[in-house]
Amino acid sequence: MMHSNGNIDLNQIKENDNAGIQLISESKPHIESNSIEKNCGYGIEIQDPSKPMVSGNTIRLNNYQIRLEEHGGKKWKTIQNSNIIDGENDVP
Fold first, then answer.
1. Sign of CA pseudo-dihedral 51, 90, 44, 78
2. DSSP secondary structure letters along 43-79
3. I need a surface site. Which of 6, 13, 61, 64 has the fewest CB within 10 A?
4. Is the separation of the CB atoms in 88 and 46 below 8 Å?
5. How much is the pTM?
């Protein structure tokens, strides 16, 4: 997603060659109640200055579950507590 404010909800996002969901350039979507698994890269990659709302997702079996850049690290605790995340993350 690029410059997007949409909703991603109730999806099964799996087996992509890169990230399941990639956010760039001030994206502010709501990502809720998805199953995000078995993607070759990240389950969700959040690049600065994107500010998504991420909750109720199951994120597992990806190379890395969540990737945050420097400023995204401030939201890590909220993302971690609002989702089921099983596996390694790339968080500052």
1. negative
2. EEEE-TT---EEES-EEESSSEEEEE-TGGGGGHHHH
3. 6
4. no
5. 0.94
CA separation for the pair 73, 28 (Å, rounded): 16
Q: Is 69 exposed, middle or buried (0-12, 13-18, 19+ CB in 10 A)?
A: middle
Please, what is the end-to-end C-alpha distance for the chain in angstroms? 22
**Edge-to-edge, what's the strand order for the sheet holding 21-23?**
21-23, 42-46, 64-68
Question: Which residues, including other chains, have CB under 8 Å from residue 77's CB and lie 6 or more apart?
Answer: none
Closest by Cα among 33, 73, 31 to 49: 73
Helix (H, G, I), strand (E, B) or coil at 81: helix
In angstroms, the CA 15 to CA 11 distance is 13
